[in-house]
Amino acid sequence: MGGSGSCDCFSDEYLLALLGKGDEQAFTIIYQRYHKLLYVVAYKYLKNDCSAKDSVQQIFYRLWESRSVLIINMNLRNYLYTMLKNHLLNEIRNNYMAMEKNYELAQEKVEYEDDLLDNIEKKEIEEQLYRAINGLPEQKKQVCLYKLRGNLSNLEIANKMGISVPTVKTHYAQAVKMLREHFNKLLFMIYSFWLS
């Protein structure tokens, strides 16, 4: 790809044609043109700088890897947005499912928990979980933290908090419901974005 003019002078269609031939400069221009826009969208939903940057990098990696077989029936901007929407939906769905499983395992004291958590993004999932727990009403939050951090039984929690075991169970059940609604709402936002 010759010339030293501004990258704005090249149309997306022209750049895609060059990209299909393996033109690295065309790919670089596409990246420079759209990576900031995609980052803003990714950060809006992931709320994490590293995760947002990683998502954008993966989109452009896939674009480059599939360059020779690309069939795009829409403008490039919409195509990249669609790729990102699908990626974000999968990321949040996977994190939600892993978080929920992790939460259930913590309650049941499963012996192989550490081995399982080694296979998922433990730090990010725990951050999302504890952020959501901190938003719960005080007693529900304390019950959850005693279960997760202290691995305490319902009776032990009841003794520490000066409440009955049935009350502990009620707080815990309501907390789990609120956490599920919280993460379902996040998924709904992504679905709405994907369908827009």
Question: Could you give a quick summary of the protein structure above?
Answer:
With 196 residues, the protein is mostly helical. The chain has helices at residues 12-19, 24-46, 49-65, 76-108, 113-117, 122-134, 138-150, 154-161, 165-195. The chain folds into two domains: 10-99, Rna Polymerase Sigma Factor, Chain: A, CATH 1.10.1740; 114-192, Arc Repressor Mutant, subunit A.
How would you describe this structure to a colleague?
By secondary structure, this protein is an all-alpha fold. The chain folds into 2 domains: 10-99, Orthogonal Bundle (Rna Polymerase Sigma Factor, Chain: A); 114-192, Arc Repressor Mutant, subunit A (Orthogonal Bundle). Helices cover 77% and strands 0% of the residues. It is built from 9 helices and no strands. The protein has helices at residues 12-19, 24-46, 49-65, 76-108, 113-117, 122-134, 138-150, 154-161, 165-195. Helix 1 (12-19) packs across helix 2 and helix 8 crosses helix 9. It is rod-shaped and about 75 Å long. Residues 30-95 form the RNA polymerase sigma-70 region domain.
